[in-house]
Amino acid sequence: MRKKVTMFFLFFLLKNSYSNDYYDYPLSFLVDACQVTNTRTQPEPGKEAEMQEGRNKYRICMNFIMALSTTLNSRCMARKEKLEPEEAMTYADLSDVHSTKELINEIISYHNQNLHFENQIAWIHASKAISQKWPCKR
């Protein structure tokens, strides 16, 4: 019984620490990971490491995009009162967005226009890029 509780506790800690890793990504790392969605390359036979790297980048990008978009959109939908201008960056109405590709391309475009932010936290700048393109209308 004690062993099971210990294993559950360790699993819980690892799961939670892993899921919060994307909060600290620099913008350049996220953009690099998301570039894989814009390329169509077939790794040569015997290049499993290259294929695995592409899968990891895709996973990082999609996990980040899904977490960010869900956070911004749900905050907007739950909002009852009018937003103050300084709050607008943390809200976005994504009801008109039809694919994650649109979100990814907007973040990449923001990065390319603001290269001086590439070593700063991606969550902040990706939020800004998305909320500027799709502001919360509530």
Amount of helix: 55-70%
Strand content: under 5%
Stretches where pLDDT is under 50 for at least 5 consecutive residues are 12-19
Note the overall shape.
elongated
Total beta-strand segments:
0
Number of helices: 5
Write the element-wise H/E pattern from the N-terminal end onward.
Answer: HHHHH
Mean pLDDT: 83
User: What radius of gyration results from the CA coordinates?
Assistant: 18 Å
Structural class computed from helices and strand pairing: mainly alpha
Largest sheet: none
Can you walk through the features of this model?
With 138 residues, this protein is mostly helical. Helices cover 60% and strands 0% of the residues. The protein has helices at residues 2-19, 27-34, 48-78, 100-113, 122-133. Helix 2 (27-34) packs across helix 3.
Task: Give the helix/strand layout.
Blueprint: H1 2-19, H2 27-34, H3 48-78, H4 100-113, H5 122-133
List the defining traits of the structure above.
5 helices; 138 residues; mainly alpha
Short characterization:
It is built from five helices and no strands. With 138 residues, it is mainly alpha-helical.
